[in-house]
Amino acid sequence: MLLSSLYIIGITAEAMTGALSAGRRKMDWFGVMLVASATAIGGGTVRDILLGHYPLGWVKHPEYLVITCIAGILTTGIAKWVIKFKGVFIRLDALGLIVFSIIGTRIALEMGLHPVICVVSALITGVFGGLLRDLMCRQTPLVLHEELYASISALSSILYLSLLNGDVTQTYATVITLTVGYLLRMAAVRFKWRLPNFHLESETSAH
Amino acid sequence: MLLSSLYIIGITAEAMTGALSAGRRKMDWFGVMLVASATAIGGGTVRDILLGHYPLGWVKHPEYLVITCIAGILTTGIAKWVIKFKGVFIRLDALGLIVFSIIGTRIALEMGLHPVICVVSALITGVFGGLLRDLMCRQTPLVLHEELYASISALSSILYLSLLNGDVTQTYATVITLTVGYLLRMAAVRFKWRLPNFHLESETSAH
Amino acid sequence: MLLSSLYIIGITAEAMTGALSAGRRKMDWFGVMLVASATAIGGGTVRDILLGHYPLGWVKHPEYLVITCIAGILTTGIAKWVIKFKGVFIRLDALGLIVFSIIGTRIALEMGLHPVICVVSALITGVFGGLLRDLMCRQTPLVLHEELYASISALSSILYLSLLNGDVTQTYATVITLTVGYLLRMAAVRFKWRLPNFHLESETSAH
């Protein structure tokens, strides 16, 4: 299936970003595999726990875990090469974000949950892996500062839900959402689209 | 119901504290909504996951999530006003703490769990939201240093359990626990009651 | 049963390491009990949540929680004594690691899960408590930098599975795994065995 193959690409790309972060913290191989796996499948894991959707994906399909661990370890060997091809990387990550968002939406849909929860499910699947990576590597979570990322996950989910609601078939809805979401994310990176920031001084002085 | 209305007040107040913390970290709107929601409903979520109490409250009632997101975003607009009315804020937070503790106790009771677990359930409901907020905003968790907070959550739970055990009706038990717990918390803030600290020097010198 | 008694020793030892870390962060008694309990039973809790293995151990047996809280508080009184007997401590921790790994393996086995997941279950049980302790006390997680720790957990699990597979009885498999795992861990500490590190410069310069 289209979505399954894209899912494998998505977790591989995310595992590589995790391994690179672990490398910046001088972690050992175990740390690299842990951070790579948490980045790649942490979002889906958190989603499944919150929705009570058992068994978890990687418990049922341990091969996903094997893929993320191998991708993590291989990345340590080709890190310099990976960094040079940063463009490829950002593209794979953008694809992964939309794939994860569609999968999150579908799982909540299949559980018969409210559309709001479907969008939240997409968001958690798309965003929590990177959040866990940044917490484990003690970096300020990128998703809370960066160009539009979470918003694109939510928008993709809303688009996908609307298409299904408008009687578009699942395959078309998937292809359209993937295309639009991917282009939006690449545009957000290129034009540095951001959400408004909320900046509160620690010491607010009365005026 | 009394407890339901108080619950709405509680999650709104907690969402506002979350948004203020996010503002101190210059997060964007998504970050503000995430931290606000985690602060408000994170404690109940962690409790439900630990007890295996599915579906989670906000999955069943997505409107709670909508409330915390809106409260978070509105707070960014009125932050300076909110900070001036710090007194109101501390009172709402104190009320929230006791309401969360009573709800936590009751859920564990209804699941037929041991009284020790009922108190733990109260504690997790009352305290974990703030803990998540501080972890996400990379502050040293207040609850581990501040005036009595967790202890008042535990005491409220014990009081509530004792009242029910002494054949007081649920409504009276709720009102009495709310009053006593609230006054205790306000007294702890005013008189700076604290638990003993445990301070271990990193390099302990022999004497 | 052998494993049950060893489990009690293991959670007591782990609770003490948690309390010592909390002391270095000047936490109050509540913080000490929280960190002690998270260190001791956090690994099993994370494992049970990931595997959907409900009710959690300490919800069913609240006495485990009572033990870890008491161990944590007592440690604050005898911290200087504990630090002097560091050798005893490292031995208890090594024993705990292997006991946790065997228990993790068995729970996954009893749930009929894939051998890869049995090893992951051992790893999570053995390693996540310490990881939570270090995150809560804002230290760089030791497990990601230290002498072989996670690897010994995984190796113990693989050894235990192989023995059972080779028709060794459960009791013998337990005793053999405990002995070999313990000796491996002590050797790793003494000879400073480590996994290769992956160190990536933040600013990689082309050459």
TrEMBL record, chains A, B, C:
Top-level lineage group: Bacteria
Lineage of origin: Bacteria, Pseudomonadati, Pseudomonadota, Gammaproteobacteria, Vibrionales
Name of the protein in question: Trimeric intracellular cation channel family protein
Membership in a protein family: Belongs to the UPF0126 family.
Protein topology in the membrane: Multi-pass membrane protein
Domain Glycine transporter, residue spans: 6-77, 92-162
Transmembrane domains' residue ranges: 64-83, 90-108, 114-136
Any Pfam family the entry gives: Gly_transporter
Location(s), subcellular: Cell membrane
Coiled-coil region list: none
Keyword Cytoplasm recorded: no
